[in-house]
UniProtKB/TrEMBL annotation:
Pfam families in alphabetical order: Impact_N
Species annotation: Arenibacter arenosicollis
Gene3D superfamilies named among the record's database cross-references: Impact, N-terminal domain
Top-rank lineage group of the source organism: Bacteria
Domain Impact N-terminal stretches: 21-126
Protein family per UniProt: Belongs to the IMPACT family.
UniProt protein name: YigZ family protein
Length: 203
């Protein structure tokens, strides 16, 4: 059975500073939910470090079908974004954005020096972040008559399913959340419980 857990950040990391031949590299790591979260964070960092020559970053979203981007922000090709992304892979985290703002100190570092500096700053940012493990969940909507309520609630309790929303009237509707690896079992349990209806919801 494939894993239904993933690692991500509990909250944004604190700012870290890495210095290399008078250049300053400020590193940050943020948990993100989707691509829309990226732009405002980068804009905030540009305001915070208005003297920064470059704000380079990489992000990754998703679990099995991973979506990612690496941005060099004017640094030589693949000298910043990809080394940062390499650290995201190395820490095996997802739904995360790592950004590094560089303030030039007057001495050129060369491509090798840049790769090393951006990699180190990204590593320090992720090191200082609180990494947590989360479980992938699958949500379902259960629809049933009031007369079937006891049967449904007993099953939910017995299998330790989480109720995320409920509407109890003449017709009842309960939204439940279960571990991704328990999804097939859940569908089978309620499919066998006629006339209860089960509908899979988007994660």
């Amino acid at each position: 059975m494939e894993s239904d857990t993933y690692k991500t950040l509990e909250s944004p990391s604190k700012e870290i500073l890495f210095k290399e031949r008078k250049s300053k590299f400020f590193g940050y790591a943020f948990p993100i939910r989707d691509e829309e979260d990226v732009k405002p964070i980068i804009e905030e960092l540009r305001k915070l470090h208005h003297t920064a020559n470059h704000v380079c970053y990489a992000w990754q979203l998703g679990f099995k079908d991973v979506n990612y981007r690496a941005n060099d922000d004017g640094e030589p090709n693949n000298s910043a974004g990809m080394p940062i992304y390499g650290q995201i892979q190395s820490f095996e985290v997802t739904n995360v954005l790592v950004a590094v703002a560089r303030i030039f100190g007057g001495t050129k570092l060369g491509v090798g020096g840049l790769i090393s500096a951006y990699r180190t700053a990204a590593q320090m940012a992720l090191d200082s972040a609180h990494i947590i493990e989360k479980t992938l969940q699958q949500r379902y909507l259960l629809s049933f008559e009031y007369s079937d309520m006891d049967k449904v609630m007993r099953t939910i309790k017995q299998h330790q399913m989480e109720i995320t929303a409920q509407k109890m009237e003449m017709d009842c509707a309960i939204e439940i959340s279960v571990r991704k690896n328990d999804a097939d079992l859940t569908e089978n349990i309620f499919a066998a419980m006629y006339p209860v209806k089960i509908k899979k919801l988007d994660i």
